[in-house]
Amino acid sequence: MMVSTISVRVTPTFSAHDYTGTIIDRWTIGNNLLDSTLAIKRFSGNVWGQGIQDMILAPTGNSGNYFSQQNRRATRAEWIETYSLSPIKGFGDHNLKFGSTVARTGNRGDFVARPIQIQDTEGECPRRVLRRGLPNFRRPETA
Q1: Other C-beta atoms lying within 10 Å of the C-beta of residue 94
Q2: pTM summary value
Q3: Residue 76's closest CA among 113, 122, 21, 136?
Q4: Does 128 reside within a domain?
Q5: Integer distance in angstroms from the first to the last C-alpha of the chain?
Q6: Residue numbers of the domain that contains 77
Q7: How far apart, in whole angstroms, are the C-alpha atoms of residue 132 and residue 102?
Q8: How far apart are CA 120 and CA 26, in angstroms?
Q9: Cα–Cα distance for residue pair 143/138, rounded to 1 Å
């Protein structure tokens, strides 16, 4: 019976950060209300190996370093304005609101890949997988 092991060096390292901030102001103008909101969110996540050696997959255990590195960052900023009129009487009470939203989102990142060696039980490397990294991406959007 073969026992497989995974080296700690093969295990990827992961780090993530998430930041959120909101400011809200409610301004009473006569009997009406102006509600203003500014919200910002930022997230980043990273995965990387503990070195740059090829990752080796073998029946008796894995060695080398994790095969990829990923860095991602997403952001969102939003400005919301809502103007609420005092209730209007006529065929019942009516509470009218008018509003707008301006928002911007962004998403960017990169992916770098390193080779993976697949070994047999003799320790020979009959196959080496060369992975290509993906191109960097950046996708801003405003609404």
Answers
A1: 10
A2: 0.68
A3: 21
A4: yes
A5: 60
A6: 8-142
A7: 38
A8: 68
A9: 17
Domain-located, residue 1: no
- Is residue 2 assigned to a domain? no
> Is residue 42 in a domain?
yes
pLDDT in tens, 86-121: 988 888 889 999 999 999 999 999 988 888 888 888
Cross-strand bridge partners of residue 83? 34, 98
Joined together, the tokens standing for residue 73 give 């960052």
Question: One-letter amino acid identity for 17?
Answer: H
Distance between CA atoms of residues 43 and 24, nearest Å: 21
Q: How many domains does the chain fold into?
A: 1
pLDDT in tens, 98-107: 999 999 999 9
Contact 67, 55 (CB under 8 A): yes
Taking CA atoms, 46 is separated from 39, 79, 110, 124, 139, in Å, by 24, 29, 10, 33, 18
φ, ψ of residue 92 in degrees (nearest 5):
105, 180
